Amino acid sequence: MAKSPVTVIGLGPMGAAMAATFLGNGHPTTVWNRTAAKAEPLVAKGATLAATSADALAASELIVISQTDYPAMYDSLDSPDSPDSLGSPDSPDSLGSPDSPDSLGSPDSLSSLGSPDSPGSPGSAAGEVLKGRALVNLSSGSPDELRRAGEWATRHGADLLTGGVMSPPQGIGKPGAYIFYSGEEATLDRHRETLTELGDATFVGSDLGLSSLYYQAQLYLFWSTLTAYMHSVALLGTAGVSAEQFRPFAAATVGDLASDGPMGFLKIITETIDAGVHPGDDHTMRMQAVGADHIVAAAREAGIDTAGPLALRDLFWRTVDAGHGSDGLSSVIEVIRRRRP
């Protein structure tokens, strides 16, 4: 049975990996990118390079977008000009930077021809070709940006799925890759078989902003965990301990936190948060805030950056000051949930 055609818009490392995966799975694959030269390796593998974004849209019902941000989608698809729609990177009126060929515009640019608030020009690519298309935008943005993009897509007769890719480009199409999707589940179901070739298609809800919330939550967990590891490495490095010497201990801690054993605090804290109780029988917040003071002192004595430890310490002491001194670590969630004036 012939595979369905797919269009990929945006050929940075992630978009190129996705297009290559579709090609490898036998899909007729059309690609479009502001800088056409980026398509050459994919064309050599059998992809079709569309001359314009309108041609790229016309080639497939399923349009996968992987660009720097959501303004790039509007600039690429909602402009009456073609083939390059927004001028060259060397043009003083260009909305794209030669240093970021996949970034096709700023939300603050007054010369932007496309925006979530504009209905689209009568001769625009969006007005003529978007109708009936399934747009799967896997670019990064805030939840509200994604919701506004849904309104924009609806005005143009398209179905929008938003997504958060939980894999580096080299992991696309390989075991362990997964993508959070939100929007109309029926749209995902129509294209699930194809999209699953990129990674497990994890539907999180109809709210178009929800995929971004999951994505940002995971990114924050990822970055903050690894940044804490780097701080620990720097701290020990002042005493001549190498990163490799410390790595086994860090790996054991990370693994234990996700386990069901006595160090399985991911599960323990999850249960206490959902229950709304924060027992501090063995380790009160006041004790842990004092411990955070010691981490700050150690960093200062070692002469390394203290911004991360200070932020943690201050959060702990604000939790104590909020009346949770005798509660456990999970009581920090009560302070995090409060929007500061």
Q: Could you outline the blueprint of secondary structure elements for this entry?
A:
Blueprint: E1 6-9, H1 13-24, E2 29-32, H2 40-44, E3 48-49, H3 53-58, E4 62-65, H4 70-77, H5 125-129, E5 134-137, H6 143-155, E6 159-166, E7 178-183, H7 185-195, E8 200-205, H8 210-237, H9 243-257, H10 265-275, H11 285-302, H12 307-324, H13 332-336
Parallel strand pairs: 1-2, 1-4, 2-3, 4-5, 5-6, 7-8
Antiparallel strand pairs: 6-7
Give the tags.
single chain; 341 residues; alpha/beta; Rossmann fold; N-(1-d-carboxylethyl)-l-norvaline Dehydrogenase, domain 2; 2 domains; eight-stranded mixed beta sheet; 8 strands; elongated
Strand tally: 8
Mean pLDDT: 87
What share of residues are in beta strands?
A: 5-15%
Quaternary organisation of the protein chains: single chain
Quickly give the CATH architecture of the largest domain: 3-Layer(aba) Sandwich
Overall structural class, as computed from helix and strand content, comes to alpha/beta
CATH superfamily of the largest domain, by name, is NAD(P)-binding Rossmann-like Domain
Question: Looking at CATH, which topology of the largest domain would you report?
Answer: Rossmann fold
State Rg: 24 Å
Number of domains: 2
General shape: elongated
- Individual helix count: 13
Report, as a whole number of angstroms, the end-to-end distance.
Answer: 59 Å
Give a written overview of the molecule.
The protein has an eight-stranded mixed β-sheet, with helices on both faces. Mean pLDDT is 87; it is low at 79-115 and 117-123. It has 13 helices and eight strands. The protein has two domains: 6-206, Rossmann fold (3-Layer(aba) Sandwich), CATH 3.40.50.720; 216-336, N-(1-d-carboxylethyl)-l-norvaline Dehydrogenase, domain 2. The chain is elongated, with a radius of gyration of 24 Å. α11 packs antiparallel against α12. It is of the alpha/beta class and 341 residues long.
